[in-house]
Amino acid sequence: AALLWGTILLACSCGPGPPRVGAAPLLAATYVLDDANGLGREFDGIGAVSGGGATSRLLVNYQEPYRSQILDYLFKPNFGASLQILKVEIGGDAQSTDGTEPSHMHYENDENYFRGYEWWLMKEAKKRNPKIKLIGLPWAFPGWIGRGENWPYDYPDITAYYIVSWILGAKQYHDLDIDYIGIWNERAFSSKYIKLLRYTMDKHGLEQVRIIASDNLWEPISFVMMIDSELHGVVDVIGAHYPGTKTVPNALLTGKKLWSSEDYSTFNNDVGAGCWARILNQNYVNGNMTSTIAWNLVASYYEELPFGRCGLMTAQEPWSGHYKVESPIWITAHTTQFTQPGWSYLQVDGHLEGGGSFVALTDGLGNLTIIIETMSHNHSKCIRPPLPNFSVVPQRATFYLRGSFYMVETLQVWHSRLGFESGNSSLFQQLHPVNVWRGRFSLDLNVDEVYTLTTLRTGQKCGCPEPPPPQPFPSNYRDDFNIRNPPFSEAPNFADQTGVFEYFVNASDPGDHVFTLRQVVVQRPITWVSDADQTISVIGNFKWVNMTVTCDIYIEKPDDGGVFIAGRVDNGGIYVRRTKGVFFWVFADGTYRVTGDLAGEKILMKGLAGVRDNAWHTLTLNIQGNSASGLLNGYPLWENVTVSSPGNGWAALGTRSFELAQFDNFHVE
Asked: Model's pTM, two decimal places?
């Protein structure tokens, strides 16, 4: 026993804790871990979402070795986060939080399984962890699916065909097996459609693909499954979003797997890590959820877009190579490096007497992993839902191992302390093993800590060399889009906020504009939020004040077609409709406008330009202080327009409506 306590004191003495001398005795409690009477629910894994939307946009532009290092921290087993599930957006050509992601079928007679970056990301994840589970979920749909209505269920056979095409394309073109498919992110579900989707998948030999519904709230899906046995038969997992670690009676009564299929969504500092640590345990302890999936995987989008830095790590500077392995990565590792989908939770209450929680899992072959968290209320608030008050105090926890675990002699110990007071966190450190004496061991737990105790010896805290230091976006940036076989369909650093801008080969051009950037969405999609009525892609540094933007433009739509270039663009993502800035428009009818907003309602100047469709023209926008001027084909067209606000923002380009148009030789200084 003396040896045991010596080991425990060693294990718990890494780094400063509150002084014990003369302090009140610790709250002490005992907990029994036993598998003699069977096990709890099967563990399905911890994962993260890429998409919903365009959250991995900047990741693809990173140069090696930095891009591979980031991917290793996310997916490589026993390295960093070691994620067990990757959920991706099935692109729908529409705004889905931080940008649009391209559909594999822009038009009814169009199929292309190489657009965007989610195919690439899934392959990179599989390359590192062949066992990772893959989920696809649509946030939006191309407009043709709704036949003019903003609704995907009027023609459920078309919608099912569209989704099944994506699953088949993943296999045919990328050798990716999709494990789970969702219905419509955080929007209504249709029982008829879900049944038809199951039927269509089975008809195409996709019986192994499981259905998650409804990626929204626990209800009404749970109730409808209780009264509709056919629906109950085809839904495999009930997935709820931001459940606040709680479930509802009907969901439990269905007997189905319960997942928090989107959660976290919190700024990735130590409070975000505290949120993540708390819900990873308590989603099971309080809510019987056997999987928790973070939105989002990696914050690889301009930070000033909505929900900046709400990823498990940050990689938003491909131009510099800088990235940051944030604390939520190491909180994830406490679970993922010492469990596998297919393990089982033990049947145990899981609440600690002094506040906090623990879960225990086993592979059924003698291995045991215990994860303990003691996150305090103010240091573990997630972005949603509101967190009821609770208190956590320092405590001594004594665990009794029973059943097949009675013979365990030592447990490896991994520890994190989120140092809110000291500002000095200790993340995922291996401590001395704990000796188990006749099935018993004790731990002194402080507040805001995470412990993993495990029979597994495979844990590793890996590190790459420090990435390059941060740098702002280049103040002189150009792209001529002259690339014959681009690795991705979108030009680097352009972040589409409505519409989709793709590399295009202009086969009929005599030579100057063979390779261009083209806006390709010609019909308003079935939207998830309020996309703009115009298309727009932003680029650059949000802090820019004075700038000159130049771009060659080509209007393809006669009569009422139009395009713009812009500066000081102040908004995007779900707020794209309210975007302001300095917008220089030219139209196919020969007129031009200068407006203070994307909607074109705040007109600062207008007149005749002589621009026509199906011809190339060069636009230049110059903004200095409170004054803006514009050139057409190198000649002044308008000048001395007063611009008061916004005072800074991105550069941008786009079109008047959902219409085809081309851009070339973009330059911002």
From this structure: 0.96
